[in-house]
## 1
Amino acid sequence: MQTAPQPIVATWLKGRLPFFYGWVILACLCCCGFARQGPAVATLSIFVEPMTSEFGWSRTALSGAVSLGGILAALTSPLIGPLLDRQGSRMMLCVAVLLTGASTMLLSGIESILGFYLLFCIARMNFAGPFDIGIYGAVNSWFLARRAIVNAIIGLAQMVSLVLMPLIAHVAMRAHGWRGGWLAVGSTVLIIGLLPAWLVLVRRPEDLGLLPDGGPPSPKPSDGAAGPPVAVAEPHFSRAQALRTPAFWLLSLYTVAVFPVQAGISLHQAPHTLESGLSQSVAASVVSTFSLAAALAGLGFGLLARRVGLRPLLALSGAALGTSAVLMLGIASAWQAYLAACSFGAGIGGIMTLLPLAWADYFGRASFGAIRGVALSLQVTAQAAGPLLSGLLRDLSGSYVLSLTTFAVFSFFSALIALLVRPPRAPGSR
């Protein structure tokens, strides 16, 4: 397999650090995960009211940019997945950070819906495709035994960003309007994400003569030549083999059920809070509350994953999403909005931590990019449908009651699907 050139900084650091280089990789991926949230629907939700008010756009029109960006990611993800397996995440994440930072900054200058679609779709395509495959492909290559907790840490970094990005945008908007908000978001993406990815990312530990989780290198053979690292035993599925397993399609069905809820509620929770009679400040803090709850819940799910198992925790995450949708139907005060946000955040934290872990645990890391690329095309299509469905039902009915009811049904259905998932049998076994 062809190996991409290693960054000089990584090669220099590897022999001088008193700890496993994978922790440097993890810190770098946390920075990339933080930068990823610039075009997140929770961030965009802060811009919905001022932008639709200024330009007269409908909620459906604005939501369509999220959906179209997701569709573009769905088309490209199966193509870039195998690239990850061959070359690693470094160049993929560097390009994703650059394009996302530049496009969100340029959103500050738009004057038409066409300009908004062009720029936001670029950012959203990177969010849903290259960022996801690059971040989780790298972290699951560097860690096996510690995979649950490091996935939780990655999720924590992304949720912290979802707490801070809307607040960064909100503070900038108070001083400089929504255009200043986009400049602040784009600048944050570039400052935090670019240099770490460029300087330290390495495809997998074997490329530096290491083993996953920092295990000792293999002993030298009798002739004194250094032998290659020996990887810990793990599943080894090709993409074709994975597609023939029930586990792949049940995980995919779970994905298709939960991600319209994730994206649809994330984008429209702030406008729904405002329409419930609460203030702009409460709406902004509700977004941050769900993000904080997701960060804490993701960490908790990561700690419990090996003890409790993936299936019941995935089911619990789906049930938490359904509960949040039901709670949002009855919002009449700030404390009810915060309670719904906490339940929504708990579900999101579980999904974001557990699903990447399930794909890696069930199918291994050798073809993770190729397998994840196919699954991700289904995920981002579902994410694309959520905001569009929510905006359309709101515009048709005049409220979010119908969309929230639909999302509650999707969520509780996903909880049932999660209980049916079983780890796939190793290729060739009967």
## 2
Amino acid sequence: MGLIDGFEHIVRDNEPLAHYTWFRLGGEAEYFAEPTTVEELADVVKRFREADQPIRLIGGGSNLLIRDKGVKGLVIHLSAPAFGGISVKDNIVKAGSGAKLGHVISTAVREGLGGLETLVGIPGTIGGALHTNATAHSGDVGQWTRAARVMTRSGEILSRTRDELSFAYRESSLDELVILDAEFELEREDPAELTKLVFDRA
């Protein structure tokens, strides 16, 4: 069985990665996957792990340089709707790792939920923001993070509660292979005031 047998609909070989970075630089990924579900993601991770192939993720590409000679193994891009959802319940915003940080902030502001607006203007995805604990204006994404779901390098899905998470300056304990989604516990505020803050900082 070949590495991508059965995955031809989500895995391509020799995919140029320059298209996925802000600087439009870099070589090809030996294999490039865009799974459409969490199940497909887990299956492809397990296949490449069993073959002892390196596996990497690429997010928004805003803080990334890729070497011209390319990347060996598998590069995963979580571009499908299954990884980019945003929902709100009471004062909790849940967002998939592929959701744009800016979209999550605008959703929270529209719902009158404050906290994340300090991060306005930071590019990239929720996954990248959590992994690096995105910080701006004396606030960071970690202080609002209530829980996160991750996938390990073996394809296992785990839930991390606030007590299991730690955040420091531009780093976090979320170092598993994939951050699937996260919940942010925010504060009720006046949407008009939040909108004004966003425009003042933009």
## 3
Amino acid sequence: MNKRQVIVIGAGPGGSSASFHLAKAGVDVLMVDKETWPRDKAIFPICKEMGIYDEVMAAGNHFNKMLFSDCNDDYMVLDATTTPTHTGIITRRYVVDDIVRRGAINGGVDFMEDFEVVDLIIERGYVKGVRGLYRNKRVDIRADAVVVANGSHSMQARQLGVFNEDPDLAWYAARGYYENVGGMDIKAVEFHYPHEMFMPAGYMWIFPENEENNVANVGVYIMSESLRKSGMRLEDFFPWWRDNTKLGKERLGNARLLGEIKGWKIATCRKVSDNAVNGAIMVGDAGNGAENSGGGGYSWAMIMGKIGAQVLTQALKEGDVSKERLQEYNRLYQADQGAFYEAQWQQREVMLNTSENVTNFIQAAKSTPGYPDLGKVFGAFGGGFDS
């Protein structure tokens, strides 16, 4: 049986970030993932530290505008040209995930793909390693601590009893890649709130990829309860939007789906907390790190990974990986990102909770001095905005 200081379950943004920063601090790290790579948004944080910033920046389409529309097909376009920090990059997950994973490996992390963790080794109340299938053979690897970062479907987070599965905070999303999308600006991401059935805060999105064939990532994001009440399946929203709204027809009227539509569930929470147990921490979607309104999670997973690695490194030096010691991870993350999650909650509960309020928000933004400047508009609403 092998022994490592830390095993990280999952090679996505959170696991790769945690692995990189642990290795950078001199910790012996093994990162495992059940997928083989590369596998199938906008990110910047921590990429420079990992030495992957230039590769990430070259991997996709850069945007500096955001379009929001309401149920009346009225819309606004916010422009971030004058605030260059408020820009983003759109690239497919299998591309950027592989860049981030390789950044961790280049930083000194050992990696085993095709390794499916099926159970945690728990002794005297402490997580002491993992049991898994490596190329269909049973493998046990012990460790001083474990980082669980294998997404919202993590069985290990559920095994440890820390995963928040509040049905009132569960979302569903689906996306498809379409070519010949009409009327889109290659530099603008789009969020459409076309009907009351999406509320609160649900939307259709358009993320442009290239203008050669007008290819875009097109998707739907909706609350679990809203989806149930709609009586539709996730894939039904694409033709519904096309056939029932002016902007939907403009975007998808002559568009062609490339491949198939894929859907998934996103679990969120009111406040990210309690992601530590004896011998383990949870990172990213496995720790309910996704936004409780917009649903984004990539950047926050990387931030959670970095903060968790810093706390775990010091705890290992002290020889204390108890829940009480690792609670510092929760405290530091809340101090760093707590205000953001509260702003997301207010956005969900107030600004985007009804179609009427979405319309009011768009009208108020368009009448704000300085419109369409993104920084000035969101500053007028009490804070900045990071895309």
## 4
Amino acid sequence: MNRADSFLRVVDRLYAAAMEPAEWQPALESVTDLLQAGHTILALGGEGGAGLAVGARVDERDLSRLLSATAEGRMGPLDFGRLPVGAVVMRRTILPDREFLESDYYNDVIRPLNGFHSAFFRQELTSRTGFALAVCRPRYADDFAVGDRTILQGLLPHFTHAVELHNRLRISEQRSESLTRLLDSLDTGVILTDAAARPLLMNERAEQILREADGLAVTATGLAAATPLATRRLREAIATAGTSGNDIDGSQRAADKPAFDRSGRISLMRPSFRRPLHLRLLPIWRLGAENFGAPAPAVAVFVDEPSAPAIVDRTAVADVFRLTRREAEIASLLGEGRTLREIALELGLGIGTVRNHLKRAFEKTGTHNQAALVAAVSRFTRLRVRPPGR
């Protein structure tokens, strides 16, 4: 393999290391081979890569000694922080061989590393982030030549891009981990989605709700409600919130569609006839958070599964839909989560009689199935208040 091919191989490995920190050492190994060096050391500093130092063909104890010397300020004129930015520098141009050989820094730190000839470069990415690279050869080897310096200078922009990408990914991961811990501390389900309703991050409570697939589930194409029509309306609402950043604007719709209001709230009916799930859509920008990872989420979906018992206002149901007292009773009990058999037992009626009343309730409410009727009467629910002391 010629030097040009080896150079390209090094570049490929640098960008692989940006995506996966474990690849930094193989990347530095390839740099060491390219320049026929004894070892190579990379030190990353700042917000994204704080504390990360990687060495190729360096004993961990010797690397620790070097880092300790750096912290103690024993490097003198070779201190990375004093090196010029953006250019390759040879050690001999900073500290002549004789002075270097007589220094405590060489005898205590560098000689155990079997280093003597060195080429450095340092780059600052921001006021708080940057990196330094040192490529070293033993004393008995030839010093780095002009051609070696040219190769290192050619690698500098690739190192810069790779380290910058590494830092950005690490920052995103750290923020994502912090966000996940925060979300998991909430009792409410929270799902972060893109504008196409595809979940990108969710907390444990949301995972539990989605596993039940009772009114809200996740499919290969994104979040889904209990019916195709409800799914379409849900995704339209998420798309509106995610692409425009505006609150959801809508009105009360048919019983088999999610119920929207102007604040971005949605009610999803559940096939189990349990109380509806209540969703609140909030554009990510409204949370003051933008960079949680890639791709960036657009909408936060808060999912509340009401646990408090509720009752349906039977008088209101009867008045609005012009139901008889018995029809309103059956429709209301159904809306509170009772099965037909439970309703028959509670009211002392035969199951056939309950079905007949239910059929007339369908006709008067303009619904055609139990789920639609539950959706219609659930608009008249109120929480059941427990008496004090119970």
